[in-house]
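Milestone M4 deliverable, item 7.
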Amino acid sequence: MTDLKAPVTDFLAQLAQRRSASTVENYARDLRRMQQVLLEHQLENWGAADQYVWLEWLNQLSTTTSLASRRRYLSSLRQFYRFLLNEHLVEQDPTRDLKLPPLVATPTPHLSEPAMVQLLTAVKDTTPLALRDRALLELLYATGVKVSELLTLYVTDLNFELGFLTVRDHLGQARLLPLSPVAQHWLQRYLQVARPLLQQDGRSAGVFLNARGGRLSRQAVWQLLKTTGQAAALTIEVTPQVMRESFTAHLLAHQADYLVVMQLLGKQLPQAPVVPFSRVKAVYQATFPRYQEEG
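Output delivered:
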């Protein structure tokens, strides 16, 4: 095996069958750096690198790279060598005995319920973009969806008559999420009043549009959360993960069933039964703080 790139290409192709595009790109970026390490050591194939090559590299990174990033590099390297072993492209795994210090867990902060209301009500304008922003914030908090799930929503995924929406993960697997009346109120107002003004060519079926009529970007959502959090004078920097953690924390604080919360988040636990949607909706109605509000 004299070609460094061919096994990487095969590994990424296999990975793409079960992981998201962003995950595959992260692995590709990491492995490009590792190919450079082999070239610097004048090694012609992955099997020629022993544990000391990789240990030296990881130690060199310690002055410029966080421990979390180095642990990610090691994880990527281990996954890749596991693939090489399975494909009989190397005889041993040089990463097997490599160790890095454990990470100290730093949980993502979440907003208190009053702070969340402060954030949601910080959008006071009635322009098309402001109505979109309010609907987006309400939906993020009311469902705990990931940004990737939010941005791939179609108008047809919203069912106001029955009070739920359908989201899909990176594998295309769908799940139903109940909607609070206040989230429905702002979504309907946005769809009826603002979205037609943003949808310039009338072709985009996405729910959340930018000023040019296209789908909103991930960067735009991050910026919206940051600036709205600043406008609300919050001490925590608001990110998509903060919104998701706040949704989770508030439901659990109101005694929501843990399995229901995990299912809402799309985190199906191993061997856990699928909770019927009627049960999910009942728990949500009883424990989501803003469910009784009408908007």
